[in-house]
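Quick one before lunch.
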Amino acid sequence: MPIYHQVALNIPLFKLMTYRHDEVLAIGTRVVVPFRGKPKVAFIWENQVEPDIDESKILPITTVFDNEPCVNQDWIELLEFTARYYHYPLGASVFTAIPTGMRKPKPLSYPVVDKTFQLNETGLSQKSPPEHHRKLFALWQALIAGIKLTAAKNIHERATCYLTKWQEMGWLNEVSNQNINPKEGAVKLNQQQFDAYQAICDSLNTFKTFLLFGITGSGKTETYFEVMAEVFSQGKSVLFLLPEINLTEQLLSRFAKRFPDISCAILHSRSSDGERTQDYLAALCGQVQLVIGTRLAVFTPIKNLGLIVVDEEHDSSFKQDNELRYNARDLSIWRAKQAQCPVILGSATPSLESFYAAQNKRYQLLSITRRAKENARLPEILIDNVRHQKLTEGLSERTIKLLQQNLENGGLSLVYLNRRGFAPALFCGDCGYSFTCPNCSAKMVLHRSVRHLRCHHCDHQIAIPSFCPDCGNTDLSAVGFGTQRIEDALKKIFPNAKIARVDRDSLSHKNDWQEICNKINSCQLDIIVGTQILAKGHDFKQLNLVTVLNADGSLYSADLRAREKLFAELMQVAGRAGRDKSAGKVLIQTQLPDNPIFHDLQRQDYISFAQNELDSRRAFKAPPCTYVAACRADAPQLDDAMQFLRDTITQITLPENVYIYGPAPQLMVRLSGRERAQIFIESTQRTLLHNTVNDIAQVMEQLAKKRHKIHHAIDIDPIEC
Ligand code: ADP
Ligand code: ZN
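Model of the zinc ion complex:
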């Protein structure tokens, strides 16, 4: 009798597929099945099911990788929740969460641990594995002989897993072959840090969400470290999430110094497929106690999870904005609940979501209000009204004067603007024609050094045109300022200064960043022109002046979160100045000096900013005071996308307290040759919202079958709204 199994496959279908096998396969087993004529990797999701189609059509599972633990029960639950919550097909969600290395229909090689084991009393009294399992048997024989085993490649690659398994059964003891190094760099926490530490440690074995609110340099990281040390000492593991941009060598070496004996896996976008697979499996087998990683690391299976830290929790990179649109911060809270452990969200400028939750006492707020180092002072923030000023290549008189002074005093300055390239637009001086991307609703950015116009959204490139295609005029002018243009201008104004530019274009090689850091640290630079890449994470002790150029763009934006993002961004950049002994200065050029955001920024008063912002969100019935989902559609023509959404809505009966807005074109209508529209569903009750979204998802699924040009997607808790 064949036994039917439902498997998760990497396909965009909401249902699971049924395959047969002669024996019952355990849930989570990795298998290979034929799908549309090709072998594909799948995971057993349910076994012994009733066939849902004609039995003669059900195909057999072709390969079974048993003896290969790949997932565990917690992980399965996490993925089921993720798929359900974000309305994304389960199979495709599973394959987003596992490392790509596991998608190949090949056996996995498990990582080798450098842990050493010895059989203990309980182990000695166990029955030996059967002799025909030759490798297993040999392993056991060696242990019986009293040999200490450092699960090594030369015995068997899977030895690692057997050894860990036997250790779990309590048959093996780990033999320490390392000296526990004295912790280097542990600091004595100040009172505020200690209070935070104490509050978290008080609930180490229960689920609780903490919002650790403290300005840059206030000692949040040291506070995490002390809590982590406590968690490790209880034999538990830690998941530490942070934005890619903050995952710096500087931070990693702090980890390594503080926890030299903790086995650790680091997962980021530069990890290779192989490394990712090894780290994933090592975590699954309980070989790592600390997983540090960016958003995808939230899906790492971790044994004995005792704490989750989400550093810079406000950062929008925790949200994936395509396919499985998950938010790693929100999922980590779910995981903490599952593991019954605390989760710390840390930030100098918490997301309004977290701030609101703390106000409503769903999260416990812990504040650190002072900078940790005694001499480190908060920078002074000055606002420069440039409304009626004539600027020199985008720079105000005051900016130039401060840069000049700092140069004379031998200080290091940062000129910050969040726009790379030479100029954000190229115009015809005669007829006003501007060069836009043929695929996107965006202007082409002028990159003069490589002689190209480039779209920063779809990467479309053309050579710099020499005349206007509309009127033939050859007098084309670059409008606005990018980092390259500012760099050129500064070189003219300060011919003797040593100037460097730091943005995505200037850091194309792996070692570029290191070179810049070396130069900064050995005082070989006077002025850095840089984008966001510089604003976060890095600590440059010498930096004592920051000037901010185009801050105003966000204040005109229709994006709900534009102000929130700007405030966070400017607090970040400001936080770069004067982290050590010298007090820093920050000068912000703006045409809108009366905007309240600058008032709060000057006093570095996040709370006041957040209160105001919350009031306005409440008035607009916007998140976090309400819950929102976006249902999106795109097509070659906007009309088709709009019609698709209109047709969807007409088939929905709305319950009370759920509202639909739209359809309307998205803020950026055209992207990569497709035109985009959306509707928003809003409710103050999550369950109601989700039920409605479920209905909408089904209708969209049905409608899309007949309209092949339309792509549609659901975005729960969207960032852009
Ligand atoms: P944050 O994570 O909030 O930016 P950090 O934890 O990195 O702050 O601390 C900023 C600096 O202050 C670091 O150099 C850190 O070593 C130091 N520091 C933090 N806490 C203390 C303390 N209690 N005593 C002495 N130095 C501290
Ligand atoms: Zn484009």
